[in-house]
Amino acid sequence: MEPPRCAVFVARHGEREDYAWHKRGENWQATAARPWDSPLTPAGHLQARAMGAAAAAHAERLGLAPICHIACSPLLRCVETAAAAATATGVERVVVEPRLSETMCEAWYRSWAVPGADSTWGGPAACRKGVAVAEADLHPAARAAAAATHATWAEAAALSATASLSDLGAGVPAVDGDARATFAYRWGHFETDAAQTERMVAGPKPPDDAAGAFAAAQRAARAGDYAQMGAYLKENAY
């Protein structure tokens, strides 16, 4: 009897707080201590749990091996999504993988670090790419190494302590987080598309099929480019 096939489920995070505020005409970032690191909304937590349950149901329906490994970016909204999905699927180990983090390009920095930033990708209308920004006017975190913007699992749990629907904290699946990667990008020294691809290629490559498929997803993953990821996984028979 053949063993169950292995598959990779790729999902975005649930609804984020800063975008919900933006839709209401408000600016969450204006008073946030970590303006780049929005948590999920209550609806986002429910979405994440539903996603985990749906992924598990799809795996069973398709005759696939049960979900046994969840990895996520170190950004809070992604860690919260992964924790909720793990709770829904019964997965006991989540890897917080810095190499899966958001691209650290100029558009990302302008979305939170420049004057008037309001979560808009590329920056607010008055401060898009090409508009000079004095270093003194930047958020202090933009002048430090980008690695400092990535929360460890323990830090993410602490940040979520007041979230009533958060799955982080006591009773959540244990996490075997990777060491914080040393990303030296900062304002004026932005990550390129090629560099982002390279760090995702450098993911762990353990011998088992599930981990191999995860490494393939890392190689294919680029911000928002799920078509490329799907093509890569199909080409490599994952």
Automatic annotation (TrEMBL):
InterPro entries: His_Pase_superF_clade-1, His_PPase_superfam, Phosphatase_SH3-domain. It holds the Pfam family His_Phos_1. It comes from the Eukaryota. Signal peptide: none annotated. This is 3'-tRNA processing endoribonuclease.
